Amino acid sequence: MASEPRTYRYNVKRRARRRITYRVVGLTIALLCLSPFIPFFMGYGKGHIIGLIFCGIFALYGLYIFAYSFSNGMYDISFVFNEDDFIVKNRKGENTHFYAEITKLDHIVPENENVYSIIHMVLNGESIIIPFTLKKSTCDTLYSFLMEKVTIEDVSADPEEKV
Known about the structure:
This protein is an alpha+beta fold. It has four helices and seven strands, in the order βαααββββββα. The radius of gyration is 23 Å and the shape is elongated.
């Protein structure tokens, strides 16, 4: 009797308020730190070069925060784990990956395991983090399913060494 194929779905919800906050804070930092450049370019404050360098660095950081608010990690992500492959759906579309592509798989459980758990996967150099807030049993079930599907070879061992 053949067993029915298992499929797991998990959605990571992101709030729009978080994106908006990152954008407002990033632009505010950038504008405040770029404001000392106005008198400098008008010919005043020539002796404050060190302060302008620090302001420029902080302005770049503010622009980085603003640009980060448009990344995939700030939007909802859906995972569909099938028997042979898994699908990652985000705002830019969906990507299908196979379990053979996973080079590293970790289950991160903090000291107070009932608060959150994390599954960390590395796919050909790309890191995927799946957070589980207040869903330890879901995380454990999905991790055990992934451990059944993933075979990770130990590349640190010498291939000529026979055990």
